[in-house]
């Protein structure tokens, strides 16, 4: 996805940083719990529509690459994701060994209720640095509640 415009948002309570690609806004704010964005042609309420000018809204979370504080190769024995969604999510897990696996989170119902789902991690996937990406499918809403990992460091050569 080419990015012509990039907005950066800092949550002052949690120090979390978000990026907004290709928004035509020059500032963001939350007023009375309502997220707002400003542009030269006015102030707009965010999160009030399910489409962007009839196009589905793509959303993703891409976590920083990490070695989890362990410099040796490792596997992830298990991963459990706590989330809420109105549809399907795609989880991509990649290592520095260029092994990328994709999982589709398929909730029983798409009622925006909480789910906790265990990913079927593969023993073939190992590496020093791990990267995680979670994205929506078909423009569904989602939020992440937790990600719990069991990491197994490996001896060099394994």
Structure overview:
There is one protein chain. The chain has 158 residues and is an all-beta fold. The chain folds into 2 domains: 43 residues, no CATH class; 94 residues, Jelly Rolls, CATH 2.60.120. Helices cover 0% and strands 52% of the residues. The strands form 5 sheets. The protein has a 4-stranded antiparallel beta sheet, with no helix packed on it. It has a 3-stranded antiparallel beta sheet with strand order 3-4-5, with no helix packed on it. The chain has a 3-stranded antiparallel beta sheet with strand order 12-9-14, with no helix packed on it.
Short description:
The protein is mostly beta strands. Helices cover 0% and strands 52% of the residues.
Low-confidence stretches: none
CATH architecture of the largest domain: Sandwich
Q: Mean pLDDT score, rounded? A: 84
Helix share bin: under 10%
**Remind me, CATH topology of the largest domain?**
Jelly Rolls
List keywords for this structure.
about 160 residues; 14 strands; Jelly Rolls; single chain; elongated; 4-stranded antiparallel β-sheet; 2 domains; 3-stranded antiparallel β-sheet; mainly beta
Write the layout of secondary structure elements.
Layout lengths: L5 E5 L6 E5 L5 E5 L2 E6 L2 E4 L5 E2 L2 E2 L3 E3 L11 E12 L3 E7 L4 E6 L8 E6 L10 E7 L5 E12 L5
Antiparallel strand pairs: 1-2, 3-4, 4-5, 6-7, 8-13, 9-12, 9-14, 10-11, 10-13
